[in-house]
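@channel anyone free to eyeball this complex?
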Amino acid sequence: MSALLAVRGLTAGYGSLIVLRDLDFHVDPGEVVVILGANGAGKTTTLRALSGEISGEGTIEFDGRRVDGSRTDQRARLGIGHVPEGRGTFVDLTVEENLRIGAYHRPAAQVRSAMDRAFGLFPTLGERRAQLAGSMSGGEQQMLAVARALMGDPKLLLLDEPSMGLAPMVTAELFRTLAETNERTGTAMLIVEQNAQIALSIADRAYVLGHGQIVSAGTAAEIRADDSIRRAYLGV
Amino acid sequence: MELLIQRLIDGTSNGFLYGAVALALVLIYRSTGLMNFAQGEMAMFSTFVVWKLADERLGFGLALAIAIPAGIVFAFLLGAVLERAVIRPFSGGNPLTLLIVTLGMFLAINALAGYIFTTDTERLDSPFPSGGLSLGGVTITYLEMGTVVVLLVVALLIRQLFMGTKLGLGLRAAAMNPSSSRLAGIDVGRMMMIGWGLASAIGAIAAILVAPVVYVSTNMMAALLLYGFAAAVVGGFDSPFGALVGGVLVGLIQSLASGYLPFIGTQLQLATAFAVILLVLLIRPQGLFGRLPVERV
Amino acid sequence: MNTTTQRSIIRALPWTVGLVLLVGAPFVLGLTGIRGLMQVFVLAVAVMSLNLLTGFNGQPSIGHSAFIGLGAYATALAVQNYGWSYWSALPIAVLIAGVVGAVAGVPALRIRGMNLALVTMALALVFPQVPVRLTEWTGGTAGLTVDERLRAPAALGVADVAWQYWVLLGIAALAFLLIRNVVHSSMGRAMIAIRDQHVAAHTVGINVRAVKVTVFAGSAAIAGVAGWMFTVTNQFVSPGDFTVLVSINLLLGMAVGGSGTLVGPLMGALFLYYVPEVLPKLGVNPQLTPAVYGVLLILLAFFLPGGLSGGLRSLVRRLSGITAKKGVTTPQPTLDTT
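replying in thread with the prediction:
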C-alpha cells in the first residue's frame, strides 16, 4: 500500500534559522500517527511545513502527487486539513459561518450533509450554531477548530496540540471524538501533542522528534514500551 | 426654514457621496489594514476613462449607458491589479512602508492621468436629467435624488454580497484571519484582489456621480477623499455601515457649518472635514460603530 | 598619530571639502547654478525637519507643506504688507510654525500611526484654502509677490544673491548640526526609543508625551525656517506652492535619502531638485515627473528600504571588505503605530 503522505529529506525553518533537518516520515491512509518531542523540537514547524505555511527543502508527496511547491490553500483543497496551534478561530463569525469556511472549497450540495455530520460529532456546536465563535469556551473552540477542519473532508488531518489549554475531561472527550472520527470516516491523522499518554492511546504509530530530527519511530505500543522515551516524554 | 431644509437636503446628498468613498476606504482597511491614500486618485482615473469613452469632442462619443459601466469595470480591474502588483509585495511589511507606497501610487496615478488624458478641467454629463423637483422654495435636483438612490442600492448590494453569499463569507474570512483562511483552502490572494476591486469600483461610482458637479480633472477627488476619510473616521474605520452613517453626518456638518458659520464660507468648507477628523480621533478614536484597536506591545 | 584621530580626519575630509566647495560656489557657478543650489538648501531643511519627526521619532506627517507654508506666508506678509525686514520676519516665521506645530503635537499624543498621517494630510489639504479665504490680505490664488529682497550688508560689497546663497547655506548647515546634536543627545535616544518601541519606552522612564510634543514643535519650527528660506529665494508665495503634493515629495526625498539618517535629507534634497531637471533631458515628458517619483518611491520601498544612504553604507561596507555581522542589516525605519 502506498503512503498517503510521504516526506523525504524535509529541511525547514524560519529565515536563516533551520528548525527541521532532513526528516523522513510517512502516514498511511487511515492511520493515526503521533509526533512526540520536547518543546522546541520542531513539531509545530513540521505541521506548518506540511501545510505550506513555511517553505522548506525536500519532497512532500501527498495522495500520489508532489505538493511541496503548492500554496497553503491549494494543499488544503487537495485534502490536507490543519487545526493550527491556537485554533485559528474566526472569532467574529458565528459557529455556522466558521464551519462553512471549513467547507469553502466544497460544492454547496455537500455542505449541508457535512454540517449535519459535524453537529453529530459535536452536539454542542449544533446548539450554538448562531453564537459568535469568539464567545465560546476554549474547549468548545477547539472542537469547532476540529469540526471546521473536518468540514473540508480532508484525507489527512494535521492537529497541533489539540489538548492545549483544555481540562483533562475535555481532552479525553476530544480524543474520543477524534478516534471515533478516524474509525467512521477513515481520515488519517497526524497529531502533535504534549500529552503523549492520551495521544498514544488512539495512535497506530509514533515518531519522536528531537532537535529537528527523528530520534525514534515505531508503533504506539513500541514507543510506550521504550524506557528511555518513557522517561523523556511520558513523564513516568 | 426653507434654507435650512435645503441645506439638510444638499448635505444628505453630498453625505452619501462621502459615505461611498468611506465605504471604499473601509473595505480596503478591513482587508489590507491600510489607509488607502490613493483611493481618490484611483476613482479619478476611472472617471477619466468614462469621460474618454463618452466625450464627443476629445473621446469616443459613446453613450453614458456604455461608458459608465465600462468605467466601473475598469475601476474594478484597476483595484485588483494594483493590489496584486503593488500592494501584495509589501504585505506584512511595516506601516511606514505601506504609507509611502500608497503615496507613491497617489503621485503616479495623478501624473499618469494628466499625461494620458488631460490636465484641463473637463465636463462629464450627468446620467440623470437636469433640473429637479421644487416644493415651496426647496429644490431637490434629479442628480441629488439619483445619487442617493444609486448609492443606497450599491450599499445594499454590497451588504448582500458580504452577508449573503459564499464569496462574501470568503472575503470576510480572508480579511479577519488570512492564515486560518488559507488552511481552509481559501485563496486569500484572490480575495484581496476582489476586495480592492470592489473598493475601487465603489470609489469610481462616487466619483462619476460627483463629476457633473465638480467636473473631471486630476484633482477632482482631493476634497471628496478628505470628506470620505472624515466619514470613515466618524463611522469607525472597520465598519461599512458606519461609513455610510458617517458620510451623511459629515455631509450635514459641512453643509450646516458653511451655511451658518460665516468664517468658514465656501472656501474653508474643507476645514470642517479636518475638524471632524481631529475631534473624533481625539474623543472617540474608534468612531461611532468601530472597535478600538488593541495596543500592541 | 593614532588610528582614531586618523579615522576621524578621514571622515571629516569629504565634509570639509564639500563645505569649501559650497562656500566657494558663487565665485564659480552662474546665477542659475546658484539659484538651483538655493532651492536645494530650502528642500534640504524641509526634508530635515520632516526626517526629525518621521524618520527619527516615527510620527508620520503628510502635513509639512502646511508648516513650510506658514513660515513662507508669515515672512512674505511681514515683509510685503508690514514692511518688516527679512531678518526680523525670521523669528516670526519660526514662532508661528513652531506654535502651530506644538498645538498639532498635542493631539498627536493620542493620535498615532496611520491616523496621524491622516490628520496631517487633512491639515495639508486645508492649508492652501486659508490664503484663498483671506484673499484681500494674502493675494489669494494668484499669490503674493514680495518686492523687497534680502540684501547683502553694504560693507561686504558682494551681490545680494551671493549673500542670500551664503545665508541659506549657513542656515542649512546650522540646521544640520542642530539636528545632529539633538539626535546624538539623550533626547535623540529617547526619540528613537519611542519610534522603535512605543509602549516599552514608557517603562524605561522616558517622558514620552514631552518628547513627542517637543519633537513635533521643533520639527514644525524648522519647517518654518524652510518656509522663510523659500520666501527669501523666490520672493513669491502662492497656495499652489504648499499643496499636499509638496508633503508627499518631501516624504519621497526622505525615503530616497534614507529616513532616520542624518545624511539622508541632503541626498533627498539633491534628488528632489535635480531629478526633475535631468528627466526632461533624458526625453521624459516633464508632466510625467511625479509618475516617475511615484514609481520610484514604490521601487525604493521594496528594493532599498534604507534609502540611498543605507544602500551606500552597505555598498561601502561590501567594497571595503568589512563583512557585516550576520543578521545586522540597515536599520529599517518604522512607524510608531501603537
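from a first look: The longest strand of chain B covers residues 132-135.
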